[in-house]
Amino acid sequence: MSLKDRAEARPDIAAGLAEDCHRILNEAETSFDAEMELARRLGAHVAEGHVTFGFWTPELLDHRVPDGDVFLELLAPEEDVDLTRASQTLRFERVYLPVARYEDRVFAAVSGLRIGTREDVGDFYALVWRDPEGAWHRILDPLAASLPYGAFAPAELYDVASMHRGRADEEYFRSLATEDGSAYKFGPPTNILQIHVPTATAGGTIASLNRRYQRLAERLANDMALEPADQLFLGYDAVQLLPVEPTTVYEDGHAFWEETDHEDGQVTVNLTRPDTTNWGYDVVIGGMATVNPVLLESGRPDELVDLAATLHTFPARPGTTQPPKRLILDVVFGHSDNQGLGALNAHFFAGPNMYGQNMAYKNPTVRAILLELQRRKVDFGADGVRVDGAQDFKWWDPTSQELKHDDEYLQQMADVEQCVAGTTYRPWFIFEDGRPWPQEDWELSSTYRAVVESQKDDDIFQWGPLTFAHNTPFIYTFWLSKFWRIQEMLTHGANWISGTANHDTLRRGTQVNPKLNINTRLGDTKMEILDKAYDNPAVAMLTCAALPGVPMDFLNARARASWGFIRNQDDLYGVKVVAEEAISLKWQVDEYSYSVPANFRRLKEMGFATREDLARFFEFLPALVEVTEYDLDEIARLLNVAEPKLAGPEHFSDATLKAVARAWMDDMHEYCNVSHSLPRLDSVQTDFMLAVRNFRRKRPWLRDNFKDGDHFDYIRPIDGRTVFTSLRNGPDGEQVYTVTHMEGGPTDDFDPVRLGIPGLDGFGWELALRTPGIGLDYVGGPIVLRDSMGLVFTRMPR
């Protein structure tokens, strides 16, 4: 049946929604209370026998659009849409239906629509209005439940309830229900694995990642031997995904939804499966309630529910116990890329910033919609939320003429209640907040406690000082220079995320000038140095066996895979971004890696046959970007006259420079995939890293701050090396003693348990962990420790 024949407007229901809006706005105690209630009604909602639609449309008032020029637009493909195809051209039937309005809200209700599910693609929709010249303008739904063609295309009508019906982790959520019906509150896990979905598996999708965990679950349940590739994913209580929201699209190039041949009641649409590469943080706010279609193998948001269920039902080895794995979502509401101006109305924004646009947090409607987007996203079944860039949530105070941090909004984020499988709960929250960043002295002046100290919950976490972006553990004296921060961790670290290997620190590490004072004891090549710096056994031992907080590892770092700022959508500034990233070639790509046929195939096709060819081009490019003040025509002219002639395109131009930049981003995205590193994993290293994680998981009390009787210091005199010693006393009387060689030359021959540290005296110490490089025959006594070596001893009271 055609869309025209089956879609029936329900003006009575739409009018009722508009009247409810009128009542709520007039009767609510505050405007924000009203907006919070109304936000629940925005977007598309499947009801009994019909679907309701709600839009916030202040732009219609701005343009003085009369009611007769506003319609709900419905689009139905005349053939089946295959969301797994790279491209297809289909005819869509289009119908315009009337709406009901109240002030800046528009409502519609329709029966007879096709609802999307895991198996079927639903009808598409948007709001449209006609201007006095007869031109049509489309208003997209920022709260859409499914966006198969991205945030800049019409949304798919989707049955959200069907995603949750019969989910495999229903019992997990039901077990959390409280007797008095109050919301269950999640606390912190013991440790976290941070994952970038597109580079985590060869498939690069959430479904592919889910299959990886399902395979691990089967192997554990059957008590099978673990391979190094398995060990990377195990020993963690939680999985934190880098943002899975829709991101920016190509600035110049094809759209994923491209309309041609408009006819009365029909339109031809060229559909392209979204294929951008992005590290996840370039969001446009629109679409934050659903999943980036680039990450969906099937094009169905159900994949995120499936992953949550697999984690929540993850088994332990027979005869052992292990809590279910939790899912943590990384959300980005502190800014929008400038492309967001094309996805949302202008009232969402408060002006430009270094990332794009500030959000208008003081606008009660915007505030409520952002919180509603968060609620709908976490309702996929996440146990925790990590808030990116919390220091960027600001508002302009006209009285003081300055930007102020919106800590009230951060508290409101943490107060949002979720409901999955009938259970109401509040997730655990992590805030990344380095205020007063970007103030020049932020590394010195930031306390990393601003949010922890302002919120009412005592389990709110922040990224700690060794986890924040600008940490380079491969520069000599790093650990001694950061000792003052480590001392802060001893007293405040219980509510910090700890560890030095995450998406931000690894990225910053690849941008360091190799001519600085690099710790060459970490490896023979720059690649080896970088890999070991962020997958360092002594650092893991220090983090897991000594320091407070919740340790977090980045999968790419643990796999010794590459990583960087990956984004192939830029046209205007793409060449500049690549110039800034060019130095990573020195850190992450050697001649052999470049020569592998599957690696850097696009750049090779453009004429950069060898790493040396590309390295020479990358010596020129950053310098020319700076001296020409990013004049692409002048950069191209100077590259063309270089002697001897540069490898690459026969002739450099504005267009070829942009093509090279795109090729670098696409090639690097493929090069960073963890699957390429799995055959090279060292089983001794992965064995140890899993053992040290399990050591921490068996002793959750190590998360607490140091207490009287605990000890942390470095061995004095320095004598050309930094060696940390730590003694922790557990609530059951167990003592954990850790010695880690962080940098510098070897120690003299010494007995670690005879250093005269208070509380260390006596007998009964047993070796619990030794880093790779220390012989299996060592169980105690005198030893020489070298860079990246460490020991953990334990003792129980007699």
UniProtKB/TrEMBL annotation:
For the keyword Disulfide bond, the answer is no
- Which branch of life, at top level? Bacteria
Q: Which GO terms describe its molecular function?
A: hydrolase activity
Keyword terms: Hydrolase
Query: What protein name is recorded for this chain?
Result: Glucosylglycerol hydrolase
